[in-house]
Amino acid sequence: MTQMKVTAEPGVPQILTTREVEAPAELVYRAFTQPELLVQWLGPRRLTMTIDRFDVRDGGTWRYIHADEDGNEYGFHGVFHVEPSPQGIVQTFEFEGYPGHVQLDTATFEEVDGATVVHLNSVFQSVEDRDGMLQSGMETGLNEGFEQLDELLAKPVASD
Amino acid sequence: MTQMKVTAEPGVPQILTTREVEAPAELVYRAFTQPELLVQWLGPRRLTMTIDRFDVRDGGTWRYIHADEDGNEYGFHGVFHVEPSPQGIVQTFEFEGYPGHVQLDTATFEEVDGATVVHLNSVFQSVEDRDGMLQSGMETGLNEGFEQLDELLAKPVASD
Question: Which of A135, B16, B32, B63 sits at 20 to 30 Å (Cα–Cα) from B93?
Fold first, then answer.
């Protein structure tokens, strides 16, 4: 039930991802929005995450860096839109290594019997941008990220 | 050659619009970004536009209101992404009458023999949101707006 599913239809500048997480929506939302939790799980295992800014409100901006063991850094930034809540998070997303390209991401949290189905919806300016994201290893990174989220949520401290 | 073309493929949360304007790209860009010019043309003829804020820079926010003769007001706001230039403008767009829904708009200006083909690319969080925009009278509003832009650009003062 925790298998991640990624859908990217031909000709559609959109990626839809669903992944079940064994925790209530409120807790999953906290893991998505509290910097000290987010850095413990988001992204591939081989990268270390540092948050530069993370202002979780309508109009607030965020920026983080993923770094590998060789010191290579990958910066990302965007703007939260709409007031973030356990019902959903809307934000723009830019990879600083591919400037001038913007995607619009919506995360929603559907609680079912105490577990949460996370729905990620990314729309892109073009199918080419969408395909570039798919080819960047996005799916592996997301998958490893969700595994790390499972591990984080299984720790007693995370559910305080 | 100035006929507007709107493309909305079934199942794709995107609207592509092209419209030729008889002016160089630099001048069209000014009409899109200078508030005192923008209020003279954007939107349907029956509505009057007032700009609340319009901070044309990467990360800058904008907000305007369209009002009809009966005093009904329609507010819109968003955030510029990427540094705006005569090559293009990227911005998010929210209609305040339909809160929680965000679209990502890209305008590019392709100069051909002294005229400019304006390309508008709007991507939506869902096909339902896209269809809602189409049904709102968007095409009529855009078409009348471009006609008002033609009129503005034909005035000697606009090309100073």
Answer: A135
Q: How many CB atoms lie within 10 A of CB A36?
A: 7
Task: Quote the pTM value.
Answer: 0.95
Contact state of A59 with B59 under an 8 Å Cβ cutoff: no
A9:B14 CB<8 A:
no
CA distances A146 to A66, A109, A141, A142, B91, Å, are 16, 14, 9, 6, 30
Radius of gyration of chain B (CA): 15
What is the tens place of the pLDDT at every residue in A36-75?
A: 999 999 999 999 999 999 999 999 999 999 999 999 999 9
Question: Measured between beta carbons, which residues in chain B are less than 8 angstroms from residue A82?
Answer: 94, 99-100, 102
Please count the other Cβ atoms lying within 10 Å of the Cβ belonging to residue A103.
Answer: 22
A12 contacts on B by Cβ (under 8 Å):
11-13
